[in-house]
Fold this protein.
Amino acid sequence: MRGRRWLAAAIAVIAATAALPATPGHAAASQLVVDLAAQTGALRYGATGFLYGLGDEGIPNETMLAALKPQVTAQKAPGGLQHPNGDALKVAPMFKRAGGREIQIYMQDIYKEWPYENLGMTDYLAKIDTMTRKVVADPYRTSYVYVPFNEPDLIWYRGDLTRFLGDYKLAHQKIRSIDPGARIAGPGFSSYRSADLRAFLTFARDNNVLPDVMAWHELGDDFFSGWQSHYDGYRAIESSLGISPRPITINEYGRFSGDLGVPGNLVQFVARFENSKVDGCLAYWTTAGGLNDLVTRNNQATGGWWLYKWYGELTGTTVAVTPPAAGGSLQGLAAYDAAKKQARVIFGGNNPASGTFDTNVVVKGIGTALGSRVHATVWGVDTTGLNPSGGPYRVAEADYAVSGGQITIPLTALKGTSAYQVILTPDKDLSPAASASRYEAEYAALSGSARVTYGANTGYSGTSFSEGYGASTNAGTKFVVTAPNDGYFTLALRYSAGPYGGAPAARSIRLRLNGTDLTDVALPGTADWNTWNTVTTKVFLTAGINRVDINAYASDDRDAINVDYLDVTAATGAITAYQAETAGNTLGGTAVTVADGAASGGRYVGWVGAGAANTLRFNNVTVPSAGRYRMVVTYANGELGEGATNYNSNIVDRYADISANGGTATRHYFRNTLGWSNYRTTVVDVNLVAGANTITFANASSGYAPNIDLIQIAAPLG
């Protein structure tokens, strides 16, 4: 289901109000009960999925994607005409680099219109043949799931289930004849349809065309009270037909209005899907390439993004959560990591329309690992629409005595559209976690041998620190930080580096930024492991989300440290701007300077591309030494493309092939700015020589590069 305005009226449940039933603002506090002793299984992270959430390479920024621990995305067919971007095979490399597990291919997106042109099965089977052969030849072929039909109950086969079943069999057999190892999803109904699912499974079983993944959509108000009955009902159908349990993907979820980007609504989907261990993809109601309203301006987080970031940072195993009512609006999920001695609870959704609510988070089953007293920090994140979010804020922080294996955390004046996170640790806090600029290591994602032990050390900040860097080449503490703008920031790393075996007195770590090694940071030794020191590094960060990893890297113990926190504060540094319209630049072919009061200098350069001769070359870009530099490109791109035109705008992510000093060009896609006078920035790395350089923007295809306002050059390290 897309943002089909015409279809909204056809489905009554979607036409209903987007708000769930409101709860009075001063009603008695509800109870959300978490039982740490009742494990419910391994974390699946399945709800972090997207329909057309990826546009092109770098759209959205890969850092925005990787920080969420993505699992599933559903994208258009290779060579499909339905949208100008989002080709499954083209976005696969980025998705896999970000840790993605599975890419579903909406095969009917080979057609241009919505509803898909019905040219008959002979035509469609020929197209399936072509698409499947492309998948078989692709290096990521084992990561794809074929989706041969999308909402067949609404298009092509409305009211004719028998004809659909026959055509599904033909499509399934065609795919398997070319790709014997293919994984195929079906039926892809627009909603949960019990009788039709039974008929479909019976037919598929009897004709040896059972899907490998079961798929349907959850797009109506009935999801909130009915999901459990949908899930249980489907599993009962499987069992009654003697069919082994299939993995389930709800490859479109969220209502037409009121859910996308709203943390308090989205947490209800996340909680239910994780509880059922199914996958889910956010529905496509707005524009492609923005993780379905989790990302704005390509590399900045909306409030909804932070909810999924919290979800991706859960570790250990999920544990039982009992909401006030099984089908009610307040829902949550939780995980307990015994090794880390940390429990996390994510919840929200009591009053999406307006007002506030009170709730008591009751945590029981607290064992000896957490101790007789525990420390709880509670964080909130608000909805911001399509505007950038300032990130989570602290709601409460306190110590609690454990009585009978449980505690109660009373919370008041919570917002219905917001989501909340509780982090529970042993009562080892030495300072509050309130600083907006500070990122505590014990709350960060850890990798390799890095761990949190809550030992006898003193002098640290917060509740603990990360350790495990000694005798390790893979320990890592991974911070996700926010920068309000493109520019220089000081990273202040607080650490300890006491005597350790044969380790040298002076230590160092490797700093990794947004997935790429940046520099090795020298860390003077400390007198002991309870003495802490701070070393600062000035780095250039992009506006929005950045990943900063503190990694072990050496085969000896020169990197044996403990990590306390990372402080991130604004700094100054040399950033040199070059206007595109400057007379000293070279415009080739059709490239021309155009007046626009919204551009920084009142003018921009446009009509770059649509031919190899139509170029913009910046001359005399001067740097003091050779190396890799950050180039901040300010641009506008409001192009709308062809494809289905009766619902969402089909935005085009223009690209430019960028080369320095006549060298090999690198292609960079520019997220659509939703208007020709909306100027945004993106950061591109360029390799420059000492002294004067040229940087050329080109696009030799039939398409254009974006309108270029200016570039700014900055060194990665200040």
